[in-house]
Amino acid sequence: MIRIRNRNAWPKVFSAFAIGLGAGAALGLLFAPQSGEETRDSIRGAAQDGLDEIASSGKSAVRRARKTVDDAKDFVNEVADAAEGAYRDARSVAS
What we know:
By secondary structure, the chain is mainly alpha-helical. It has 2 helices and no strands. The mean pLDDT is 86. The longest helix has 59 residues.
């Protein structure tokens, strides 16, 4: 880990990092094995595949959530019906 003792040196360090990052990106594009159009198409395709996968996962999650909610509603209705029946039975015995 690099420790910089002088706070005034941070702009220089950041500038050097930014210049190195830019130079690396430029060299990467310059020596890339594909043309710029092929690279953009590849990136676009990968991004679209990722979006499609996210959409599919989201749809699956929504379906599971709806099923869980429906199951919970059914359970609550069954419990309410059972409680109502027990209340009626208890009331008829008490009368």
